[in-house]
Backbone:
């Protein structure tokens, strides 16, 4: 077995296959595994930043990671008291506490509507997560139970009917911020689906940060793989399948662009055209700050939040995301800020941010990001010691799957949620015998959940090695 790409999905597939008794070799272009789930100290300041993914609600809820048991592998997921916050002008903020009732109480007159929207999802979070992290081809247990509350919410949030749900401006902004994660306007179908899932997880399992950074999750997977006989080859940029050792199956943890680059002319013309037609979405430019003291938020609750969405009102979130979709930078970009130090004291005084920008943008967003933070935290400039900025056009230097800076590895349109990377019954298999895909460009999409790795490993075990019913829990229980 050979895996190309040591991101979370590639490592998850490798772990499953190695624990099933197969010889597994992983090839990674960079000098360390992890892809976007890496933590680095870019200068001599001693501050450690997560280069991309920093907050991990999906790792807490993923069937793969629940079976893998991160805690048993030395990973401590630390919970901020408030999962995410959304400040508004005037020193106000919407706060998504771990506790749903506390969140509803803070929202005042709109609290009952917030509880009515998310309560049924929180009550069924395991079933909802099972559906959202499935391969979208085989109905998981609890499908009907999960789809009922989702079906009730979608028509209201993805249509003008959303105006009937809330009366104030705080709750709509709080919801718009979480819906904007896929770099889409908050009323787009993909944004609503992603937003409901993330908002549900905030109250069900929280939005934790790993102690020491996201690299802890990567290290746990890599160590387990090696413990079961697997091998990781670092610093090997695979350019063609011919470079790889002969194997009964090869897993490509690559975007469609990466698969095309590696397979060259081996793919049938029609499938190659489908991969070329795959669309990449809006992008992110990152700015990591080292601070002399915590961010001086005007709204005190923001200082307890692991994640803060900086965009202002719902109308401003919508305008910023519409600009990015139109291919132009927003005057006031949507900025997502992570404060790992609110839970991980070892990373106090670190602020990691990214701004939504058009795909491929090479613009330096530092000043725009500082302005957005300063807007809700007057005096922020005075506590900045240093910063490191990476424009969207350079994010592929951290992970080649971030084409043009698209951290979702593909536009989260309705079609590309259900039929990524191409419209075929097996989204992981390719026309090349024994060659599979398992990146975030396959179901269930972006996030550190490892589920694409599990889905592809299950297919390989069934189709290539005759294991009739692979069971994730039984495989991961093996020593």
Residues:
């Amino acid at each position: 077995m050979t895996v190309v790409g040591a991101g979370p999905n590639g490592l998850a597939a490798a772990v499953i296959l190695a624990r099933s008794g197969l010889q597994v070799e992983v090839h990674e272009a960079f000098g360390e595994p992890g892809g976007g789930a890496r933590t680095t100290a870019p200068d001599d300041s001693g501050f450690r930043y997560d280069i991309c993914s920093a907050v991990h609600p999906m790792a807490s809820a993923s069937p793969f990671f629940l079976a893998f048991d991160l805690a048993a592998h030395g990973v401590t997921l630390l919970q901020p008291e408030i999962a995410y916050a959304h400040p508004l002008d005037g020193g106000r903020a919407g706060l998504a506490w771990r506790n749903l009732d506390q969140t509803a109480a803070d929202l005042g007159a709109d609290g009952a509507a917030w509880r009515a929207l998310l309560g049924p999802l929180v009550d069924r979070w395991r079933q909802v997560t099972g559906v959202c992290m499935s391969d979208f081809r085989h109905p998981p247990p609890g499908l009907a139970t999960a789809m009922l509350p989702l079906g009730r919410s979608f028509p209201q949030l993805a249509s003008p009917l959303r105006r009937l749900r809330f009366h104030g401006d705080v709750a709509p902004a709080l919801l718009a911020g979480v819906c904007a994660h896929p770099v889409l306007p908050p009323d787009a179908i993909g944004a609503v689906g992603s937003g409901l899932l993330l908002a549900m997880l905030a109250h069900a399992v929280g939005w934790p940060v790993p102690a020491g950074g996201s690299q802890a999750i990567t290290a746990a997977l890599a160590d387990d793989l090696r413990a079961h006989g697997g091998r990781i080859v670092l610093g090997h940029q695979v350019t063609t399948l011919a470079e790889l050792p002969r194997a009964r199956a090869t897993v490509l943890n690559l975007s469609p662009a990466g698969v095309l680059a590696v397979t060259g002319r081996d793919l049938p013309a029609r499938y190659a055209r489908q991969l070329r037609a795959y669309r990449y979405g809006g992008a992110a430019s990152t700015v990591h700050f080292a601070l002399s003291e915590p961010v001086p938020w005007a709204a005190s609750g923001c200082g307890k939040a692991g994640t803060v969405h900086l965009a202002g009102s719902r109308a401003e979130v919508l305008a910023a995301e519409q600009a990015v979709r139109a291919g132009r930078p927003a005057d006031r970009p949507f900025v997502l800020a992570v404060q790992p130090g609110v839970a991980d004291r070892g990373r106090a005084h670190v602020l990691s941010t990214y701004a939504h920008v058009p795909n491929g943008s090479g613009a330096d967003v530092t000043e725009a990001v500082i302005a957005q933070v300063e807007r809700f935290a007057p005096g922020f400039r005075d506590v900045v010691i240093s910063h490191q900025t990476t424009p969207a056009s350079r994010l592929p230097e951290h992970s080649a799957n971030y084409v043009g800076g698209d951290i979702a590895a593909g536009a989260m349109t309705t079609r590309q949620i259900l039929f990524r990377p191409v419209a075929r019954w097996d989204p992981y298999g390719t026309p090349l015998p024994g060659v599979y895909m398992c990146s975030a460009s396959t179901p269930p999409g972006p996030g550190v959940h490892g589920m694409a790795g599990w889905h592809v490993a299950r297919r390989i075990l069934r189709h290539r090695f005759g294991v009739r019913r692979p069971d994730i829990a039984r495989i991961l229980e093996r020593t």
Remarks:
- The chain has two domains: 2-47+212-278+408-477, 77-209+281-397.
- The first strand starts at residue 2 and ends at 4.
